[in-house]
Specification:
This protein has about 260 residues and is mainly β. It is built from no helices and 20 strands. The radius of gyration is 34 Å and the shape is rod-shaped. The relative contact order is 0.05. It starts with about 35 loop residues before the first strand and ends in a 7-residue tail after the last strand.
Length: about 260
Amino acid sequence: DGTANLDIVDIDGAVDMASTLTVADNISVAATKRVYLDGGGNTYLTEASGDQINLVTGGSTAMAWTSSQDTVIPATSKIYLDGGSNTYIHEYAGDHVEIVTGGASAIKIDSAQNVAINNAPYGEYPFQVNLADTELVHFGSNNTNAVGEYCGIGFGQVYTNGEYQKVALVYEGTDNGAYAGKIHFLSDTDGTSSRCNLSDIAFTIDTSKNTILPATSKLYLDGSGGTGGNTYIVESAGDTMSFFTAGSERVTIASSGAVT
């Protein structure tokens, strides 16, 4: 019941101690035997199989560490990040992972790798975000305010190294103190593996809300399925505007104002 110095060679049986046991060397427990944390009930540490440690609470495995150093928890159990309140990660259904913050679903990833943000429905699209009125999903940077600096969203086929990224919607800085910028739709139509950039502007909305087409690009009025027909407006030459219907030029307005 007090303090004792023991030099023990072997003990066969139980040792009861009513005080603190201090060990100055290794403790060895036989394979598959248990180190109880509740006086011998159902909460303990054990080597459940070769080189695997199980932490058992209430008679059920709460966590395990495998011989490959993997950490394993039971299905649907939670890993709390706030001391056990309402912020955690768990498998909420078979092969479905959820991150919960403040008691609300922040991110869900289902077995088909579909991602749902902010408790959005999932399964129909690979990526869905649930937004309230006036909320935005923001794509941007703290370093794209200068002219020629841009960032945005790419579309279509793309390789892991960024090659063949042919279409994008981007913001370009204008050196504006209030960070007003231009919006460009980029379309690279060459036959190489290059990616689109500001030399591939298809149309622009500038800081004055003007819509701008590159010189000689056509504005079709009879498109179908994303393909222009034969009725359009075009800058046919420098400062000269032409109107075509059925493929024929009907009206031309020259830079002088003359109409033919």
